[in-house]
Amino acid sequence: ATRQAIERRMTVADFDAVLDMMAAGGNPTYTGKLVSPRTALGVSACWACVNVLADDLASIPFTVYRWLEPEISREKARDHYLWRLLLEEANQRMTAFEFQQLMETWRQLWGNAYAEIEINGRGQVVALWPWRPDRVKVWLEDPNELRSRVWYSYLPLGKNTNPITLPSDRILHLRHISVDGLIGLSPIEVHREKFSIDMAMQEYSGRFYSNGGIVHGVLTHPGKLNEKTEQSLRESMKQYQGVSNAHRLMILEQGMELKEVGLKQEDAQYIQTMNFSANDIARIYKVPPHRIGQLDRATFSNIEHSAIEYVQYTLRPNTEHWVQRLNCWLLSERDRQQYFVDPDYSYLIKGDSAARAKLYQVLGALGWMTPDEGRAMEGMNPLPDGLGRVPRVPLNTSSADKTETEEPAVSGQVVPAAKPNGKANGGLYR
Q: What pLDDT does residue 354 have?
């Protein structure tokens, strides 16, 4: 594959693709295109899918919580050292959003994303430094022992620089679907032929328009051309190539005739083929077609349901993988008894203003939400004087701890309701 690429005068991008292909252990494609995670980004559908997945995941806040009562009540742990790393600054050069976006991009392209965990003298994580996945080697200390320790080695870009080798507890490793539990599979490598077809189609389209939209043309001559005349003819015909020269008047000499071969009907369906290809890539990444601009079959109702399914079946599994890795690798076993990381999906399921108002009305009527909790979800401050801290309940309901043996109220008598502190106020509590 390397020899073939050199013979066809490969560019720097092609040479980079060859190195990626050799590092991944891949084989040349049937179309002859060199496919790698970097070159696959040239396919617009691949770029859109990876961009959507990375941006959406980076937009989800990974919030650190502290248990007040295990499995019942919690509060945000703003004083924990992970709060800044996950919500503000991952390291001295990257914000939390940039770090999560980069790591998810690597995971969706290479199938793996690595970051070195920097720890201070007290055992606290102070920074996360991403490692380029194409320069990382992962191996077991003893390949014959399943419980053997996992090691990671990173080869820096600088010359005469020794590799950095660290154990698994110092590396945050996010992987795609795996067949060995050690290394994730790259969607680009698994579907290499699919992406090569898309790249070949783009090249076909570019060559088609570079020739002015004419697929084929034949020049006929009554005699036989010698080599010099044929070369001169080829040079003179270059002035008619390209989109800007598509309608120039062509002058032929020595009795030549131009026979134009028309565009086949199958070739005219190129756009339909590209749409099908984009949907195929969206299927690989489990991204709804409307998120990458494929709106040919989109309606208001199916887009809404597709968005819900995307959150449930695509974004949630990706996020859950992140959350479990963050909890297990960034929190000690002792810390996990009190602290945990949990994603906040509220911005994804808010809906329109009318739907949110209806939701708050129902939850408030059931006593499941206080006014202040609803205002907080809308980014508003609490009501003054603590007026919004107590939930509202309907007057025609009672709490579940009421027993049937209680004496019913006498007709016309008002039963005093208890305040939150247990004292009666001589009237109904609202």
A: 75
